[in-house]
Amino acid sequence: MRNAIIFSIGNELVEGLIIDTNSKYLSEKLKVLGYYVVRIETLPDKLDILVERFKAGLLEADLIITTGGLGPTEDDLTREAMAQALGCKLVIDEKIAQELVERALKYYGKAPESVKKQAMVIEGASVLDNPVGTAPGQMLQLNGKIVIILPGPPAEMIPIFESITQTIKTDDALYTRRIKTLGIPEAVLMNEYKDIIYSNPNITVATMASYERGVEVRLTGSTELKEEIDKVASELLNALGEHVYATDDDSIEDVVYKLLSENSLTISFAESCTGGMISSKFVDIPGVSKVYKGSVIAYSNEVKTSVLKVPESIINTYGAVSEECVKSMAENVRILLNSDFSIAVSGIAGPSGGTETKPVGTVCFAFSSDSFTRTITHHLRGNREMIRKRSTLLAFDIARRGILEWLRQREVSKE
Amino acid sequence: MRNAIIFSIGNELVEGLIIDTNSKYLSEKLKVLGYYVVRIETLPDKLDILVERFKAGLLEADLIITTGGLGPTEDDLTREAMAQALGCKLVIDEKIAQELVERALKYYGKAPESVKKQAMVIEGASVLDNPVGTAPGQMLQLNGKIVIILPGPPAEMIPIFESITQTIKTDDALYTRRIKTLGIPEAVLMNEYKDIIYSNPNITVATMASYERGVEVRLTGSTELKEEIDKVASELLNALGEHVYATDDDSIEDVVYKLLSENSLTISFAESCTGGMISSKFVDIPGVSKVYKGSVIAYSNEVKTSVLKVPESIINTYGAVSEECVKSMAENVRILLNSDFSIAVSGIAGPSGGTETKPVGTVCFAFSSDSFTRTITHHLRGNREMIRKRSTLLAFDIARRGILEWLRQREVSKE
């Protein structure tokens, strides 16, 4: 397997002002392309450090990728440092220089000499078009090694990197299927379905459990195993049934959106402890207006009774965190917002507000449709943020299961 | 200045499964404690790589901090690797071993020998208590160098690191003031207030502009300059007036929460394009129920008219993205949810939905109180996510300015 080293460059990174998301993205992609990432180095914008670290990296790795340090100011030293480390010259790319000057004139009315800095290219490197920003990427192949230089902003880095994945792919490139589940504990899943999961010794199995995404099974092997991996994945999908909420790159909200959109149906939410998180996550999806009416965030009991018309007797008898309350919230918000379905969530996210019978982490959920309502209570662990994120995931899951049940009922009644 | 290297350890990091937030936290803190972070290295759980990289780091840096790789399984190799790199032995800490065995018996009913792995300590190191998890931290001083070993989960790493900041602080420790502004472009701010900002040549000035947080001015210097830095900060605060939305660690939602809480006032929101993001961010604050009633997420026009009672004539005449519409949304949600104040937001987050007169990024905001309503329209740049995040920031800012105006009016009327 070929080795790779990723360099993330910028004072803002080593001073802790921003989080490096580029390296996560690149290391995940590089694994699939068949590289072993021996390390990621985050470095300041300092020429001597960059030259020394690049030189060390070039001795050890088959592939070097840098992100950041390609701006037009004096701080931006990645180009210079890599040229020095490689013992190559920097030359001006006249076509890019011309574009940069025209762009500067158009936007700022003047084009100082410094704008041309971004047109400096390591001699022999191919220029990688930047569809979003001004600094192009560069790729150089030298003595069997590949050096790739990319800009720092993720919106610029990602499309440039995607344009070269086929070029740098190795014979060790991998094929991966991801099966995302909820409602079955990791240990139970891996034990009950082990005959399927481990049926092919050539396939590597990994699991990952998280409060935000449930339990994910990853099946990985060389690209030649594609059909075999797909076969195991499809057997596992069949066996797990509705416990699978999504596969591969889909999120749970994507799946709920698709279920609604394909059937021209709509949804609304009534949120208490999640406080708008379910709604906001759903609105992350462009075009969601086709299926999403809106929500009532009933954070106070007053809003639960005044806007959502939950009878005061329910709150007095069972409390605001009860299946009775979320049932009423769900049914009423569905009618109030004129949607086909609705979800309601009420719980205790903490840190305070817990009692002996309803400790922090108690969260009630309801799904409502014109033909049935389902409720469930979960006891969640973790801090306020974890409880709210897990509740958001579970809310989408009760929506997914409810919509599937409703669609099945409709099929039966049609027959 | 003393040099530091941070090592983040874990296969899940170099395979891109999770994002490294520890290094951001540590590098920000180390700067303030007087260290220059020469690099951050992210490494896999592989003994030979770890030993080699730790050895290289020990030659270069005065302070080495590792996070991760302290679990009880065979994958977790940080302890062993650091002992080898230092040429020291690992010894068992009997007190911790005893605690780990008792804990395992309590939670799992059995205590395999492997639980004692987490009690292995580098000879001569002090044990750093882990108040949250099982793996303690370790600190070793050797030949004028400091080695600190911390667990990977942030909830465990942070309190342990905080317990030793006073011990590792250098004579170059820094004092920083952060002034966070909105409503004045970075270039204008730095030019108009340069006489204050640059009044003391011993103070280092840095600015950071972001769509999520506005423009931040950082004043930094040695801890001995504390009074001088505070003086410049306070002059700048006076000069900038209401453009300053927060200082130091406060966020804009913290400031709105405090303004409401200190005056026993309440707020509600009517959101369209932000889709619950304003609400969800506010509910991140524990105890927010004191000041927050709830929200109506009126994503569809139907909900704007049916629940929020925006007259259809307003939507037909001016459109849903208009100051007229948000004014009506804000006034009506305030009355519907019985709060002292309200904020309404309606805009075009894209990628589709833009028109020639109202392109993607057009966002209207309204603040409503019992005595006045204010509206404003912003034209924002960026993708859907950036527009929604910027809108959320601006919504809290119009709330902050509106509440301050209302409080001033109340003061005047009392006189």
From TrEMBL, chains A, B:
Family designation: Belongs to the CinA family.
| InterPro entries from the UniProt entry | CinA, CinA-like_C, CinA_C, CinA_KH, Competence-induced_CinA, MoaB/Mog-like_dom_sf, MoaB/Mog_dom
Upper taxonomic lineage: Bacteria, Thermotogati, Thermotogota, Thermotogae, Thermotogales
User: What CDD domains does the record tag this protein with?
Assistant: cinA
Q: Which SMART domains match?
A: MoCF_biosynth (SM00852)
What is the recorded name of this protein? CinA-like protein
User: Which NCBIfam families is this protein grouped with?
Assistant: cinA_nterm, molyb_syn, PncC_domain, PRK00549.1
Residue ranges occupied by any MoaB/Mog domain in the UniProt entry: 5-171
Q: Which HAMAP family match?
A: CinA_B
